[in-house]
Input
Amino acid sequence: RKEVEQDPGPFNVPEGATVAFNCTYSNSASQSFFWYRQDCRKEPKLLMSVYSSGNEDGRFTAQLNRASQYISLLIRDSKLSDSATYLCVVKLNAGGTSYGKLTFGQGTILTVHP
Amino acid sequence: DAGVIQSPRHEVTEMGQEVTLRCKPISGHDYLFWYRQTMMRGLELLIYFNNNVPIDDSGMPEDRFSAKMPNASFSTLKIQPSEPRDSAVYFCASRIDRDPEAFFGQGTRLTVV
Output
């Protein structure tokens, strides 16, 4: 089983739509969670961190369910510029050889059309 | 700071040749990661260093791959001999211990023919 699993999509939505991405992780020792965004033929960049209580950044809302080992990203009022691949990332904070390791999901492709 | 710098940006080589990818992390960052990205497998962690010491190389596919970090400002990933299935985009990323955000270089697009 992969450490981090995402639905690869693609998701094709019209402008203004609300879209949600899900991600599950297998290692219960995972302590920090993030969403990265990757534009076509570019490098990944941090979109937002995911906090236990859930957090919002403008049109983006991230949520974490530790019991189910599940992370989500909600995008409201989609824009054409939101078209990208969204990568779920987990970081182990425990000790040992995996400390500090960032593990990426395969990514979910989003295309927003006019 | 110029960010994480990788070279070359593109590399086309023949099967069997040695390939060396280079990375200069952001100054002051103490973690350095090498990732490989393909359509089929996504972004895979190959190896990462902390304070120039390799911490986890379990993602290195086989003995043909090796990575070094001789000092805090330079790392190399070498493939010898290269094979067509090594074709991918190789990313280097760095971060500082107190901040979980990883900063990526622009990647090296490797094609082995």
